[in-house]
Amino acid sequence: MSRFAYVNGRFVRHGEAAVHIEDRGYQLADGVYEVWAVMNGKLADAEGHFKRLWRSLDELRIAHPMTEASLLLVLREAVRRNKVRNGLCYLQVTRGVARRDHAFPNPPVPPAVVITAKSVDRAAADAKALVGASVISVPETRWARCDIKSIGLLPNALAKQAARERGAVEAWFVDDMGLVTEGASSNAWIVDADGVLRTRDTNANILRGVTRSTLLEVIRESGVPFSEKPFTIAEAQQAKEAFISGAGSLITPIVQIDGVKLGDGKPGEVASRLRRLYIERAREKAV
Known about the structure:
Blueprint: E1 4-7, E2 10-13, H1 24-28, E3 31-39, E4 42-43, H2 46-59, H3 68-81, E5 87-94, E6 112-119, H4 122-131, E7 133-139, H5 154-165, E8 170-174, E9 180-183, E10 187-191, E11 197-199, H6 210-222, E12 226-227, H7 233-237, E13 241-246, E14 250-257, E15 260-261, H8 269-285
Parallel strand pairs: 7-8, 7-14, 11-12
Antiparallel strand pairs: 1-2, 1-6, 3-4, 3-5, 5-6, 8-9, 10-11, 10-13, 13-14, 14-15
């Protein structure tokens, strides 16, 4: 099947898509991105992703490339052209193309926009969720503005590669206080020894996960005891359950942390139930 990408105002064949060599995203990581889960051909958690996108752009003083209504039309068209029923839709906005200089171009240039969409085997993901996955821990090496969804992801890429080399699906960053911040591409959660569901609060240096936000709505309705209280790797290894959340992973149970098996080594009831409830909510609200 031919794939298509949206690049700066037009759709082109995926294999022919290109950006200018002086795009500031390519040379300076001067840009932001968002990833929508696609469910039944629709964009999940759309409102939350748009809200975070505009905030990230504003924090970096990058102009909005188009209105939200126009962008939604283009995202939907990317999903349609690529015949994606279940998968991911990726958006990247950079400051644009200009002579290389660390300072912003003056006068400003139009922001550059790239959108792609691809299918994901949800059946395989569901199968993985039934058996659980493993994570490793790595030192926190990222910049101090992880609340901005920047395309500057080299520390995340190195952490994810370290996880792959050790047979894990994710790496959890650990800060100077010995506390888990988040994963390389997901938020981190545990159900502690007292049965309380815990994750890091967004006042810490973490990304304000959109999947996390929707999941918090589900958690409040489900009645699961919850606290935005940080935890150490040692606490996580003694926890009853653990899982990760994100547009790519959705809710994936974790059964091993740094080689230590959690409980009986099987996904817990809370994580499995929250995965089901989250998917139901996301499908219901997808646009």
